[in-house]
Structures are given as structure tokens and as C-alpha cells.
Design a protein that fits this description.
Elements lengths: L4 H5 L1 E7 L6 E6 L5 E6 L3 E6 L4 E7 L6 E5 L5 E5 L7 E5 L4 E6 L6 E6 L5 E6 L3 E6 L2 E9 L4 E5 L5 E6 L3 E6 L9 E4 L8 E6 L5 E6 L4 E5 L5 E5 L12 E3 L5 E5 L4 E6 L5 E6 L19 H9 L11 E6 L1
Antiparallel strand pairs: 1-26, 2-3, 3-4, 4-5, 6-7, 7-8, 8-9, 10-11, 11-12, 12-13, 14-15, 15-16, 16-17, 18-19, 19-20, 20-21, 22-23, 23-24, 24-25
Length: about 325
Amino acid sequence: MKLTDNVLRSFRVAKVFRENSDKINCFDFSTNGETIISSSDDDSLVLYDCQEGKPKRTLYSKKYGVDLIRYTHAANTVVYSSNKIDDTIRYLSLHDNKYIRYFPGHSKRVTSLCMSPVDDTFISGSLDKTIRLWDLRSPNCQGLMHLQGKPVCSFDPEGLIFAAGINSEMVKLYDLRSFDKGPFATFKLQYDRTCEWTGIKFSNDGKLILLSTNGAALRILDAFKGVVLHSFGGYNNSKGVTLEASFTPDSQFVMIGSEDGKIHVWNAESGMKVALLDGKHTGPICCLQFNPKYMTTLKMWVWIGTMLANAVSRSSTIFTVLNN
């Protein structure tokens, strides 16, 4: 089923999960779209089956805490940042709940964590004003960049380049094979004093870059020219909450939650708002993603809809959205 304005408008809440006792801070889909894993401020990792629409297993990271959880290319392993004791990144086997490897190096909280879409490389950005490149097979940092401000970072969909958003005013693009030579492109944007950049993502077709903030504004850039194509606003975020924005897998639409529990959807090409989804959520929608795979048949679409808007707030509720 093709995504259209009307299809998006027809989404409704289908299921609610209440597995957590505190805020869910992050979640991630497996690359095959069959499972999703969440991390929470209650130190738990909850694994969900997207096809069955139910929780499968709960693990805990009581000592170190857990945030920014990411699947590797194996559906039974994850990496995540720590929010207790230190700022080490940890590599965990979900099968036996054992750590495979530790990645020490950052001296302040990790704010960006992204797996390469093609291999075992991953990238991290921190409040210590560094970006580090890693390989799952080695505990040693494979590359280190000292920056002039707080970074956000992400890989492009082909895993050949990565983007670094620096100091909420500049986007730099690096070739992964020669990043030590500096960026091959730098885009300077007008600085907005009212908010800071909290995330950067490429669209799946590699043509667009999405910048999310802790304010009530999003920007879409042309990934080749750095030109701001659209600025999206009109959603509530008066308290400076970090709200995750996402593209749909076909790169057609951009969506974000808001502090009043609604989901706003825009057409990425035209910049027009096409949908406002109200799941009657009781708090801010901090995390929102679309299933990366299931969208070719009605059965598959139902389950991509089921995991469209995993809306997470302090009530620790995950809303799932289903197409009518």
C-alpha cells in the first residue's frame, strides 16, 4: 500500500503497551522490521514482536542505565549509551544478556549514536564536543574528531558519508574513508537563539537532511546543496523537550510528536502539513519512528502502522497506530 495524505490521516491508535515504570527515552527497529526494542529511564530494555504486536522479553541495565539504544545488523545484539556511572557505550547480546564489548572514551553524556547501514561501523557524538568512530569488533576508537561545539551526527543511507551538525548552526559532511582530511562540504545556517539542534537524519533516498530541535521548529535541507527547503513549526514544545522527528521510509513525509500528545505530519516535497494525529496521549511524544520494512502488502502495512508512532511520555505508554 502506497503512503498518501489520506492514508496517513486515517491512522488511529490500535494498541497501548505499559511495560515501564518511567519515561521511555529511545527505541529502535531491527533492520528486518520484525522487532523493536525500547530503552527507559527505569533501566529496562523491552523487546517487542512487531508481527505479533506484543512484548517478548525484558532485560535490565540497573548498574549503568540505558539510553540511545540501537540494533546492530544482527537482530539479537544492540549498542547503547550509559546514563549512570560513566559515558561508556556498551555492546549487548540479547540472547544471553551478556556484554560483548565496551567502548570507553567519551567524558560527557553521549547525545548521538548511529549504526552504519552497511557494516559494523558506528558513530557517536557527545557533550564533550567530540565525535568518535567505532567498529563493533574493537573496543578502541577508530577515529576521533574534536569540535568547537556540541555535535549531532548520522550516517547517510549508503554508509559512505556522515553528517555532523555543530553548535546548532553548521552542518559538515565527511567522507568516511577520508574524514581525517576534513569535511568535503560545509553548510552554514542562520543561528536560532530559541532552540538547539537535537538530532540529524538523512532521508532514505539520501536527498534530504532533517534537523530536529528542542524548540518548536524543524528544518529540511537539500543534502547536496545545503539549502533550507522547508521549516516546519506549529507544534507545541514550550518546555524545550527533545522530540524525535522522522522521515517515512519512502522519504515522502516528515513527522514529529509534540508536548500535547499529537503527531504532526508534513509532505517533505511541498512543505504542506497533511495530517494531525491525536492519540489522546497524556504527555509529550519524545520518540517516534516508522517501521523500515513492512509496507508492501496490506498485512505488512497493518504492522507498519502498528509501530508507526511509538509515542512515549512520562506515563511510560507506547501508543501504536494502525491504518483503518
